[in-house]
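Appendix B, example 12.
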Amino acid sequence: MEVIQSFTIDHTHLKPGIYVSREDKGFTTFDLRITEPNKEPAVAPSAMHSMEHLMATWFRNSRVKDDVVYVGPMGCLTGMYIIMTGCYTVEDMRQLTMECLEWILTQTAVPATTPETCGNYLLHDLPMCQWEALRYLGRLRNHFNSEYTSLQVTLEDGKVFADA
């Protein structure tokens, strides 16, 4: 079988930030990398689940809602994927994500956390989700001056992650 392209990226070079991980067929997949892979702890499953509910709710109600295809967590729990139609840059997604994270910090409940609306309704942690959101927001706000956020990574073989 062919290796999935995202598995060919050396994750030891990734920092928290926002990357374009794929552009094809009219879709752009954004990698919202919340933690540094293999160096920082992954986001706790319950916090990530809450972040998924909150981010999906915000993006699907935002001014770009008609272009949102998918919002969901990475299996490794180090970030989220957002798939969009239309023409969005990393900077556009950075601005949108910061607005979303600011909104998450004001929430007092996670939407859709009943047995009827969620497949694992007990696996939520709003306070830890907000802690992760605040940390990620700080990284995105300071992205030009931060060692923690890089909007593009050039790997040793010359590949640019934003082109993956």
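The CA atoms of residues 105 and 130 lie 6 Å apart. The mean pLDDT is 89.
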